[in-house]
Here is the input.
Amino acid sequence: MKNATVNLVSRPILRKNLVGDEMEVPVCRLVEDRIVVDVDASVEFHCIATGTPEPQIEWTRPRGVRLPSHVVVDNGYLRIRRVRLEDEGEYVCTALNAAGQAQVTGVLVVREGRFTHYSPVWAPGIWPTPFPYRR
Here is the structure.
């Protein structure tokens, strides 16, 4: 038996409004659907949507949880400046138009920094240095 490859091409779902104009149900995707970032870094998700009429893009957290006040949503982008540990989790992009809606979910993983400060080890008569010291 030979291996077969099947390429599926998705076609937009078309609908007509009351006056007969064709409408296309939105399709959306994320440029990156999983982002790993350190605490205090900045991050952005970008949601791209197509459809007729042009869909509006909304960002939410799952189950209707509101976005934190430091999250900025603009023109398909969700931006977080100075990421916090509690920002970790899923973010949902929803594309809406008169023909319907589509959703896609992105995941943000936040890493707590391993070395957030320098704490030298002291010994009598030895001064700590941040660099290897050679005589």
Summary: Strands lie at 14-16, 22-30, 34-38, 43-52, 56-60, 71-74, 77-80, 89-97, 100-111. The chain has one domain: 16-111. The first strand starts at residue 14 and ends at 16. The CA atoms of residues 29 and 48 lie 5 Å apart.
